[in-house]
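Quick start: read one record
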Amino acid sequence: MSKDKLLRRFHPLEARVRSTLRKYGMLNPGEHVIAGVSGGADSTALLIFLAGIASEFNLTVTAAHLNHGIRNQEADADEDFVRQLCAKSGIPFISERIEVRQHALATKQNLEELARNRRYDFLRRTAARMKAQKVAVGHTLNDQAETVLFRFLRGSGVEGLSGIHPVMEGIIIRPLIECSRTLIVDYLKDRKASFREDSSNADFKYSRNRIRLELIPYLERHFNRQAVTTLAREASLARETWSFMQEQARGHLDRLGVKVGDDLGLNISGLLQLHPALQKQVVRRALKTRIGSLRGITAAHVESVLELCRPGQGHAWTDLPRGHAAERQLGILVLRGNLPSSVTEFTYDLEIPGTCTVAETGAVLTSRITRTPDLSTLRGRGSTEAFLETSVLPERLTIRSREPGDRYGGQGHRKVKKMLIDAGIPQRERSRLPMIAANSDVIWIPGFRPARPYEVRPDSAECIAVTYMEPHGGEGRTR
């Protein structure tokens, strides 16, 4: 099909797409556009439209097709279809084949999500190689409605309900985003253009297919004949709200953010003065700034970070995905990145008296014989120093990492794991804490009171004092 024939008749889809292009500033004259073409109705219509306006806008159009290898012969037939369509239209064609299913099985990733990510990676790489300014993909009004419903049913905030953005990163454009699937099929019929049907689109094991084939038709029959248009309009309103919130969050982050070494901190007092909705967005934006991505960060994680900021909260941590964490330090909320998730197991002897450095963490522990202090001044608080009963201790104490089944004071006493959880110590820190053991019994963990069977008795004249110093010579935290 020649480009002249593509332009010989006017169709309502063309007017709709031209309006979309103007509204969102998607294309500029003279640009090179990479069109992602799967061979389905939407991407085929997109390619035909772009080819039709290429001379008018002085565009260079290149079709790019990624064969995921998921549907075997059917996928190969899709690739052949797109190649032939491009040959008839005189459009340059680029393709690549990958084995997504094998990679998904090997890495235990979601097949659909992995295929989508690989497709966008392919399109971006192609655009960079071809020095193209834009990548056009064929999302439609129906895709927008399906996305909004899908995210709503899973549970989503304003960002999720904003749906598919017409322009993403200034590079990805979606010219058909205001065109219904009915309009697209009619356009292809008018152009006497064929397209491929993806058999997986009828597979009800995929939630999106059930939304498209069952839920939306049901809503149209029983609630709103214009359900697709209404959902797309709601997405547009949500995008406006989201854009405003992001603009506000950006300004507040600039005002409240402080450098804490290599980490990013937030002024807690200023953060708490904001509306709760803005508090969450400032935290999310700060997390993205510090760790580079919000992958794996859920609403529950953001809530746990904000919980550290509540009035009356003392020093505390909360773990975040991929080895990151948030920590409250007085009036500053510190967002930490790339922290070690654990250390290797360690065991050292601590002579009495003597000093030992734990190479794995840098902590230093010292034991000495001393007069028994006034125990009434020590009760009820954790410490970086423990006073132990001489008569029940072996000649040497052991410094070691936590082991499964440890109990504080030996058999019949409280589990060490539960102690650390109840104390709010992040999992990342638990493997780094040195446990002072007498034979197989854990008798002291820095920050806690010594285990009762091993704590010095009030009537003892002298005792063993063990002092803990944090890495880099800092005094250990009181928990």
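Residues 347-473 form one domain.
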